[in-house]
Amino acid sequence: MYTEHPPDTEYMRLALNEAARGMGRTSPNPPVGCVIVRDGQVVGRGFHPRAGEPHAEVFALREAGEYARGATAYVTLEPCSHFGRTPPCADALVAAGVSQVVIAALDPNPRVGGQGASRLREAGIEVIVGVAEEEALRQQAGFRSLVMRARPWVIYKYAMTLDGKVAALDASGRGEANGLVTGLASRARVMAWRNEVDGIAVGSGTVITDDPLLTTRGVEGGRDPRPVVFDGQGRTSASARVIRPGAVVVTAPGMDMSRHEAAGAQVIYATQPSEALAELGRLNFSTLFVEGGPTLAGSLLDAGLVDEVRAFVAPKLLGAGLNPLTAPVRPMHEAQVLRDVTFESLGPDLLIRGLLNDIPRLNVQGAN
């Protein structure tokens, strides 16, 4: 069991900051960061930018050069031990002559799964596992879900007033003066989140009502995730702004979506939410950001498929009573309870975050 040593945690958080630079760009690979430290000085940094390119350790070792010999490498995920599109990072660390490798979390990929740590130890390198592990697991939740559950990590984001009136953010940017629940700081945070995920999911009702673009407007250097429209009845117009190359439409078997395909969208057919997520997993979606209305979110929640909730509460009242119920719900003793809950103020709004499902992790005997 790892016993916290403050400098180790500090350097690992630098590595996690490096890894964050690749968020939303590495699927089906994980976001990974690496920092090389020698004599208390950071001599190399690196992150994995996208699948097929060198891993974080390679970039950090290149920057460190000869200073890597005898240094400590802090890596957010266990270095790979196999040949994929790139050579094994464990071998690169051995060749560079590092004396110690500190790992945040083990790799759930069965081709690694503790073998990277073993390879380093066999070469006489000291290995420590578990530094800032929980932070790393959060950052890698999508990759871990894709590898261990063959489906994306599902994040449900919504905004509501104090009296429980729920509204999706108007991603089209129209009517912002009067139509949105939350303030500017909250909306900027949502754009930053979009920049970090593989897909944004909405229902056909949201598309028909708002005709959203679902982009990362306002984010410097941002990239737009793939829109995913859940439309079991084929109601979405092929001319909707989300129906474009890269978009995915989830619909029921037998629906004619040829016009949507002609517009560049990919169509998958599913009868249950779990089937839809499995299909998205086969398309290498590791994270899915659900921004649709209560119908889509409710079906995923009822199926136990929402992994994480990010809810904004705005200090506004829309009236018509304090009871927001529009349909029967579970008894209180059957409520789905968030874990690892955090609270954050964003301007006038309150952001509540928590988990409904555990982040998949790998435990290997004798990892430390």
What does the model show?
With 368 residues, the chain is α/β, with parallel strands linked by helices. The protein has two domains: 6-139, 3-Layer(aba) Sandwich (Cytidine Deaminase, domain 2); 151-355, Dihydrofolate Reductase, subunit A. It has helices spanning 6-20, 56-64, 89-96, 115-122, 133-139, 141-149, 176-179, 184-194, 204-210, 258-262, 273-282, 294-302; strands at residues 33-38, 41-47, 72-77, 100-105, 126-129, 153-161, 166-167, 199-203, 226-230, 248-251, 266-269, 287-290, 308-314, 339-346, 349-355. Strands 6, 7, 8, 9, 10, 11, 12, 13, 14 and 15 form a ten-stranded mixed sheet that branches. A five-stranded mixed sheet has the order 2-1-3-4-5, with helices on both faces. The longest helix is centred in the N-terminal third of the chain and has 15 residues, at 6-20. It is globular and about 65 Å long. The model is unreliable at 168-178 (pLDDT under 50).
Number of helices: 12
Describe the largest sheet.
10 strands, mixed
In percent, how much strand structure appears in the residues?
15-25%
Please identify which CATH superfamily of the largest domain we are dealing with. Dihydrofolate Reductase, subunit A
N-end to C-end Cα span: 7 Å
CATH topology of the largest domain: Dihydrofolate Reductase, subunit A
Mean pLDDT: 90
Number of domains: 2
- The stretches of 5 or more residues where confidence is low (pLDDT under 50) are 168-178
Instruction: Note the overall shape.
Output: globular
CATH architecture of the largest domain: 3-Layer(aba) Sandwich
User: Taking Cα atoms only, what radius of gyration do you get, to the nearest Å?
Assistant: 22 Å
**Percent of residues in helices:** 25-40%
Number of strands: 15
**Any idea of the CATH class of the largest domain?**
Alpha Beta
- By secondary-structure content and strand pairing, the structural class works out as alpha/beta
Order of helices and strands: HEEHEHEHEHHEEHHEHEEHEHEHEEE
Function: Converts 2,5-diamino-6-(ribosylamino)-4(3h)-pyrimidinone 5'-phosphate into 5-amino-6-(ribosylamino)-2,4(1h,3h)-pyrimidinedione 5'-phosphate.
GO molecular function: 5-amino-6-(5-phosphoribosylamino)uracil reductase activity; diaminohydroxyphosphoribosylaminopyrimidine deaminase activity; zinc ion binding
GO biological process, one term: riboflavin biosynthetic process
Organism: Deinococcus deserti (strain DSM 17065 / CIP 109153 / LMG 22923 / VCD115)
